[in-house]
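Lab notebook, design round three. We kept the backbone fixed and only want residue identities now. Task for the bench partner: fill in a sequence for the structure below.
Input structure tokens:
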């Protein structure tokens, strides 16, 4: 099936899931180093655990040898706090989707449950590095599944959101959005009215829904390895006005897509009986 409902809740601006395969060329080696109580993980794009065909549908899976070769090489997170650094998408990085005109870039980290029970995941401190666009995090947890001789990631854990959380936007989102829109308005004063309407809409959204944290729980099994898929879609950039819904008179100057610059976020994992 396509990406589940939980994934869609992670960021309202995201497009429908697309697809791919082709092994990504190796980038800088993944590293895990400990600094005091905070562990840092760099997650690159060289692994190949999901794939989609030219129509945007998931491929049937991968051979055991291919799948576990990449799975065993993934950077691992443990309980406690981890800072995850996602590098920029360079020209050597290939989309995991074969769908024409709809690239998708993913990186992964794995987590092995030491006990059976409920785990609480808190994700925050999202920091982007692009002066012209903003990042909304798109991340989801999967279990390892098998269909015949093929192995794949199945996103059917359906985590439960904790509190009024779901979307995680960049730190200082409104201030950064104001700067981006002001710069765009200086270049395109003819769009001033829609630019201000866009800012007011996003301000109302932020005041209604917390965007500084994503917190959810799910039950995991002892000894099982789970994979977090980090999808680079969720970018917001200033564009010429467009109607947000077919037949609607509402316009916006923000558009989504793939965030191509480096970004980082914190993940805290707690075991709860």
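Proposed sequence:
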């Amino acid at each position: 099936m396509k990406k589940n409902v939980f994934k869609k809740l992670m960021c309202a601006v995201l497009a429908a899931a697309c697809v791919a395969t082709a092994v990504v060329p190796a980038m800088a080696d993944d590293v895990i180093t400990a600094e005091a109580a905070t562990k840092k993980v760099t997650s690159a794009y060289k692994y190949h655990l999901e794939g989609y065909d030219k129509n945007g549908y998931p491929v049937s899976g991968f051979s055991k040898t291919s799948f576990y070769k990449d799975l065993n090489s993934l950077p691992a997170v443990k309980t406690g706090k981890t800072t995850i650094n996602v590098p920029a998408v360079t020209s050597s990085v290939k989309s995991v989707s074969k769908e024409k005109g709809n690239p998708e870039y993913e990186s992964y980290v794995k987590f092995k449950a030491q006990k059976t029970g409920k785990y609480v995941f808190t994700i925050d401190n999202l920091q982007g590095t692009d002066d012209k666009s903003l990042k909304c995090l798109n991340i989801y947890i999967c279990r390892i599944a098998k269909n015949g001789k093929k192995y794949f990631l199945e996103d059917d854990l359906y985590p439960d959101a904790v509190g009024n959380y779901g979307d995680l936007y960049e730190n200082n989102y409104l201030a950064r959005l104001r700067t981006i829109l002001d710069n765009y308005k200086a270049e395109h004063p003819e769009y001033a009215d829609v630019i201000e309407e866009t800012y007011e809409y996003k301000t109302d959204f932020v005041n209604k829904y917390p965007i500084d944290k994503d917190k959810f729980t799910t039950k995991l099994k002892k000894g099982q390895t789970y994979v977090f898929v980090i999808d680079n879609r969720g970018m917001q950039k200033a564009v010429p006005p467009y109607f947000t819904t077919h037949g609607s008179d509402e316009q916006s100057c923000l558009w989504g897509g793939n965030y191509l610059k480096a970004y980082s976020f914190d993940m805290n994992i707690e075991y709860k009986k």
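Keep this in mind before ordering anything: The helical segments are 5-10, 64-73, 173-187, 192-208.
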